[in-house]
Model the fold of this input.
Amino acid sequence: MTSDPSKDREFYTQLFGWHASESGPEYGNYVTFSRGAADVAGMAAAPDGSNAPDAWLVYLSVDDVDDTVTAAVAAGGQVLLEPLTVGGMGRTAVLADPSGAAVGIWQPIEFDGFHTVARPGTPIWHELSSRDYDAALPFYATVFGWDPQVLSDTPEFRYSTIGPEGMPVAGVMDSTAFLPEGVPSHWAVYFGVPDAATAAARVVELGGAVLREPWDSEFGTFAQVADPTGAMFYLGSVEAGTPTGAARDDATTTETVATGVGDDAAFADAAFIDVDESDVETSQSAG
Done:
């Protein structure tokens, strides 16, 4: 959710060239962002009196929300938002994994999320920074049927990816040694841009902030930024139509992360990904 829909709407449409469409009051004036003909993100206003920090929330696509909630609790997770139906669009709930990271789940009815990825202005990666990697990884494998691929398993850097070999769509990182004190485990979204350094400068011009200056890795150039109301996300340089994985190889560098990202009920926009061993479909919406 966002504490200032008008400000964030202007920010994201200017930054990514998104078109914003607002639903009616029956959906809380929910905003859907699109690029071209494809939906890529969404935004909901925070309830009156909410003191939760603005943040992004990743949603995972599931076949049955209620069954997934039951499996999550059995595997050590918690329910932050009980299952509910969103009009004719879908059914949703919000969970916390054993490391405390909030994650949404979405059972599509009429709306099955985004289908445009790995291009400028679209999601290119989703990443869990976990304070309890050993608990989080088996949780997602058990509840969502993931088959994680280990990218690195050294004392200095532990990282696994999710998705078909050669085409990962998300990563899980042991961030115990990197997260600043008080910053919980959290999911983050990466958006593609033609040039991460140029886009980071544009973020500042539009009222946002650069939390970590652009850095280069074997996977490309990335920057960590926040929108004008504090919701953190990443930018990654990507060529149009080029799939990319944003797993980072600079684990020795301490990241600066917006305090409160991953808060139990906080999200500015939402993304959900459907991970199947044989067919990966990435989708995005907001809950």
Observations:
- The first helix runs from residue 5 to 16.
- Residues 5-115+265-283 form a domain with the 2,3-Dihydroxybiphenyl 1,2-Dioxygenase; domain 1 fold (CATH 3.10.180.10).
- The chain has four helices and 17 strands.
- Residues 241-287 have pLDDT under 50 and may be disordered.
